[in-house]
Write a structure and sequence with these properties.
Blueprint (H helix, E strand, L loop, with lengths): L10 H21 L8 H6 L4 H18 L6 H32 L7 H5 L1 H9 L18 H20 L4 H25 L14 H8 L1 H20 L7 H17 L6 H5 L4 H12 L11 H8 L1 H18 L8 H31 L5 H11 L5
Helix pairs in contact: 1-3, 1-14, 1-15, 3-7, 3-10, 3-13, 4-7, 4-15, 4-16, 7-10, 8-10, 10-13, 11-13, 14-17, 15-16, 16-17
Length: 386
């Protein structure tokens, strides 16, 4: 594919974002014990945190697909990224602020002293998207936003990484992806072997200083983004063969299924951080070839949900808590209640996307097209959001 030629839109990858966000939603249903028991759903949901890894890989791929071969000015790129992520991010902080302050002074954080002792610093770090760099601050306020802090670091580096990757051959792109994967596996394996936090069990229910570094530090998560970038450049340079789409997607899904099956035997740090990054890269590559089989991913409602997945991700954890705990709705162990909660979050996310995200993004970038008209056009074209 000519790097300077117009590139077709990738609606399947926009829709894929919705499935990644939904996977994280399912994990929190399990973490909050809203859904319990042993089932296929529980097995898949138990590793729902890997949906964030999919976001990181997809982000690297889409940014390369969008900007490779073009004159990218760092300041313009950063402005575009700020306009894309910060308005909805600030909205999520405002929405979750009362709950966070209540937790600090009366609830959960009373037994975790760092946020109480450093409340102003914790809030400042969160507003500045720097909290993932400070292990005790990574999960305060809106816990899921640690990934936005990581993404902000990726965006900071991207204009420079783009120039470096442009000089790498296809063969070395594959080698670079493998090296990045091995690097993170080495880090997580070392943590597992040494257990510097002295934890009796290392799983998603516990936190430790060095465990938080392994899980949330932007430098540790950078290889997943680099894998996505390498995949994106390889996709643009290789001769596209749509016949490979279905085998690639099936191979990636098979790898995912194998990891789900053996997840209780895989060390948690390795599973949490980038173990599935190659499988995700293969799935993304296959879907980018635009196979005809997953036609559902091209439907306008699916693309709209993919567009709204960012707001869905930012608010889903708080809204799950509101639906099942604050409002005291008797919906636990009730599939109808779970589906109702899911529908509420989807509906609110779409509204936020249409009437907050898009208007503010256009305003910050100097664009004027009405939000609803532009969103309908985007759904019709099936664009991939970057």
């Amino acid at each position: 594919m000519d790097l300077e030629a117009p590139r077709p839109r990738l609606p399947t990858l926009t829709s894929l974002r919705f499935f990644a966000a939904s996977h994280v939603f399912c994990f929190h249903l399990l973490a909050f014990k809203i859904v319990t028991g042993r089932s296929v759903f529980a097995a898949v949901a138990s590793i729902g945190y890997v949906g964030v890894s999919l976001f990181f890989v997809l982000s690297g791929f889409i940014l390369v697909y969008t900007y490779a071969g073009r004159n990218v000015k760092a300041a313009e790129f950063w402005r575009a990224r700020f306009a894309r992520i910060y308005p909805a991010y600030v909205f999520s902080l405002l929405v979750t602020l009362p709950w966070f302050l209540y937790a600090v002074f009366y609830g959960y954080w009373q037994v975790v002293p760092w946020p109480v002792a450093h409340l102003k610093l914790a809030m400042l770090l969160q507003i500045a998207l720097l909290h993932a760099w400070v292990p005790p601050a990574a999960l305060v306020w809106n816990a899921v936003s640690w990934s936005l802090s990581v993404e902000a670091f990726f965006y900071l580096l991207f204009p420079y990484l783009l120039k470096c990757f442009a000089r790498v051959s296809c063969t070395w792109l594959i080698a670079l992806g493998i090296l990045c994967w091995c690097a993170t596996l080495a880090i997580t394996a070392t943590y597992t072997a040494l257990n510097p936090d002295g934890l009796k069990q290392i799983n998603s229910d516990v936190n430790g200083f060095w465990l938080n570094v392994v899980k949330f530090n932007p430098l540790v998560r950078l290889p997943e983004f680099l894998i996505g970038m390498a995949c994106g450049f390889h996709f643009l340079r290789a001769r596209a063969n749509p016949k490979l789409a279905f085998p690639l997607v099936c191979s990636g899904l098979l790898g995912f299924a194998v990891v789900v099956y053996f997840s209780d035997r895989i060390p948690y740090p390795m599973l949490h951080t980038s173990l599935l990054a190659p499988a995700f890269a293969i799935i993304i590559y296959g879907l980018a070839l635009q196979p005809s089989l997953p036609a559902t991913l091209n439907l306008r409602p699916m693309v709209l949900l993919g567009d709204a997945s960012y707001s869905f991700y930012l608010l889903h954890r708080f809204l799950v808590w509101v639906c099942f705990f604050s409002m005291k709705l008797r919906l636990r162990q009730n599939i109808g209640g779970v589906l109702l909660c899911f529908a509420i979050i989807c509906g609110l996310s779409i509204l936020i996307y249409l009437f907050l995200e898009e208007p503010m993004r256009r305003k910050l970038r100097g664009q004027r097209k009405p939000a609803f008209a532009r969103s309908v056009q985007a759904c019709s074209a099936g664009r991939a959001v970057v």
